[in-house]
Design brief:
CATH class of the largest domain: Alpha Beta
Mean pLDDT: 97
Oligomer: single chain
Number of helices: 9
Strand content: 15-25%
Radius of gyration: 18 Å
Distance between the termini: 16 Å
CATH superfamily of the largest domain: Murein tetrapeptidase LD-carboxypeptidase, N-terminal domain
Order of helices and strands: EHEHEHEHEHHEEHEHEHEEEE
Largest sheet: 7 strands, mixed
CATH architecture of the largest domain: 3-Layer(aba) Sandwich
Strand order of the largest sheet: 6-13-12-7-8-9-10
Low-confidence stretches: none
Number of domains: 2
CATH topology of the largest domain: Rossmann fold
Length: about 300
């Protein structure tokens, strides 16, 4: 159910300029009509080239969280795109850790924002939420009750479970640290200090506009760099807008996931509604998780994440 408390929501725009201005303002209006306070509105219209402002402005969106007199309840990314990677080596990780660790503050977003979320997890241990953003989700022309219910559940329930139908084979319970997000952004962090190193991880992935062969290539990069060997399981979300043609001759995502099962021995649990689609769950990156599949139903239980009080 939607959260009925009044929340202070601070907008940030660390990535691309928001072309969907109408959607962004619709999202602001919806949040305000639900009783929430929304601040830092200037970031929605801010622009430099293809970015939501200069590098210094977008970096300040993140670093100011370390010095705000009053912390917001929710820090919400306006949109993704490209730009977060340019900021990673200048983020005030020590200040953010000191100010935000063990505080009831939810940093939310996905797509390009994955880079910042994983860097924060790697450098500070901060758990953030891979979930809806202002323009694409809260401002969508068609409001998704599914997305909203899962968002507020993740931010307010100390323990919750995601359950969904899957074509994946049964697997016994696997426990580990849940992490991941956008696959392209995960792979862009390999070999950098910004990628978390989790033994016994549960890797949750999604992407958009990437053909199955490109997804396989990225998964091979994760495998050949030793990252998949440290995982307990992989959960796949949505892989939107990938056009498969005649040349593929049956090479599709099912092929990719099955080959990965065979080459890694890992459970690859498919079909979670997570990513760039209108309906998406919210996943706390860094939370404790337990995953199992039985008789065509997957269940991922999550705990240990910060919750709004």
């Amino acid at each position: 159910m939607p959260d009925r408390h009044t929340r202070l929501i601070r907008l940030i725009a660390p990535s691309g300029y928001c072309l969907q201005q109408e959607a962004a303002h619709r999202g602001i209006n919806r949040l305000q009509q639900a009783g929430h306070q929304v601040d830092n509105l200037d970031v929605v219209t801010r622009r430099e080239q293809r970015f939501a402002g200069s590098d210094a402005q977008r970096l300040a969106d993140i670093n100011q969280l370390a010095t705000l007199a009053d912390l917001p309840d929710i820090v919400l990314a306006v949109r993704g795109g490209y730009g977060a990677s340019r900021l990673l080596d200048k983020i005030d990780y020590i200040g953010l850790q000191r100010r935000l660790l063990n505080q009831p503050v939810a940093l939310c977003g996905h797509s390009d924002f994955t880079a910042i979320q994983l860097a924060l997890l790697a450098q500070t241990g901060l758990i953030t939420f891979s979930g809806p953003m202002l323009a694409a989700n809260f401002g969508a022309a068609q409001h998704s009750d599914f997305t909203q219910q899962h968002f507020w559940q993740a931010l307010t329930a100390p323990q919750f479970a995601l359950a969904w139908p899957t074509s994946a084979p049964d697997c016994s319970p696997r426990s580990g640290r849940v992490w991941g997000g956008n696959l392209t952004m995960i792979c862009s962090l390999i070999g950098t200090p910004w990628l978390p190193v989790h033994q016994d991880g549960i890797l949750v992935i999604e992407d958009i506009n990437e053909h199955p062969y490109k997804i396989e290539r990225m998964m091979l990069q994760l495998q050949q760099s030793g990252i998949l060997a440290r995982q307990q399981a992989i959960v796949t979300g949505s892989f939107s807008s990938a056009a498969i043609g005649e040349y593929d001759n049956g090479f599709d995502f099912t092929t990719v996931w099955q080959r990965l099962r065979e080459s890694t021995g890992l459970p690859i649990v498919t079909d979670l509604r997570f990513g760039h689609e209108a309906d998406t769950v919210t996943v706390p990156l860094g939370a404790r998780g337990e995953l199992q599949v039985e008789a065509g139903t997957a269940r991922l239980s999550l705990s240990g994440h910060p919750i709004l009080t």
